[in-house]
Amino acid sequence: MIDEQNYLEPVVDEEALEIQEEYRKLMKKSMRMIIGFYSMLVVAVGLFILLQQNKFFIFNVNRSFQNVPSPLIAEIFSMFFFAIIIIGLISFLILTTTYIKQRKLVELQIDKDTLESFRRRFSVADVFSVVPIFLVIIMIINGYFFSFAQVDGESMEPTFQNNDAVLIKYVDTYNTDDIVIVDKGDIYIIKRLVAQAGDHLVVNATGVYVNDVYIESVMYMGSDGELHLLAYTPYDIIIPEGSYYVLGDNEYHSTDSRVNGLFTEDNMIGIVVFKFPMG
């Protein structure tokens, strides 16, 4: 027979149970978030290395304004994002270290203060958990679809002024009258595409003709204020497949195909699709 006066029900610490339950949930969330973060970071690092060959890639470590003029906004964005990546990586290194230490503890050793400290570190890391995903998206868009550039010089006036910021789109096909970015070997130039495969191109001392239509002269403005004949490349051909003839809109102040001759598909980088308004 049970002595009801001496029988005591086991004491249940509700707060301790709640702490242990929240601790288990937080550990699971932390593990998933850590795995996801580092997995996407590996993808981002792979893209970062792969896209170093693209000189217009905003995270290209070898890019300089001298070889690839870039608008200030693009430089600020790349530096800002580098800072965010470093902060995010530090926050996840802290979370990862904390997670490893917490796993070594048994649940009974987890008190309210320990849980609260873990929760704070989790919350900080959670803010930066989307950074690798966002970084991968930015890299893909910037590396394979669109890039920024800045006009350097007066060869495209009045269409583009010196220091105009433009948006480049990478394309596989080009059309006559496109504004194109061309790899000239030592520098990148912005010009207008005036003739391509199948067009009849004539270049002589009287000017440039495409399909018997006069396009531009072969003169340049000297420092003496007088027009002089360029050391032009003469042509009288049907342009072969994969070749292009480009000119600057400012005909007397442009080094273009009149001097450099035809450019090939390997020289073509992309087309300008937008000019950013200057403040």
Question: Which key phrases capture this entry?
Answer:
Umud Fragment, subunit A, 5 helices, four-stranded antiparallel beta sheet, single chain, alpha+beta, 279 residues, seven-stranded antiparallel beta sheet, 22% strand, 2 domains
* Category by helix and strand content: alpha+beta
* Strands side by side in the biggest sheet: 1-2-13-3-4-11-12
- What value does the average pLDDT take? 88
Q: Work out the radius of gyration.
A: 31 Å
**Uncertain segments of ≥5 residues (pLDDT<50)?**
none
Proportion in β-strands: 15-25%
> What distance lies between the first and last C-alpha atoms, to the nearest angstrom?
93 Å
Number of domains: 2
The percentage helix is 25-40%
How does the overall form come out from the CA principal axes? rod-shaped
Number of strands: 13
- Please work out how many helical segments DSSP would assign: 5
Major beta sheet summary: 7 strands, antiparallel
What is the N-to-C order of secondary-structure elements (H for helix, E for strand)?
HHHHEEEEEEEEEEEHEE
Description:
The chain is α+β, with helices and mostly antiparallel strands. It has two domains: 14-146; 174-275, Umud Fragment, subunit A, CATH 2.10.109.10. The chain is built from five helices and 13 strands. Strands 1-2-13-3-4-11-12 form a seven-stranded antiparallel β-sheet. The chain has a four-stranded antiparallel β-sheet with strand order 7-6-5-10, with no helix packed on it. The chain has a two-stranded antiparallel ribbon with strand order 8-9. Strand 8 (219-221) and strand 9 (227-229) form a beta hairpin. Helix 2 packs antiparallel against helix 3 (112-127). It is rod-shaped, with a radius of gyration of 31 Å. The mean pLDDT is 88.
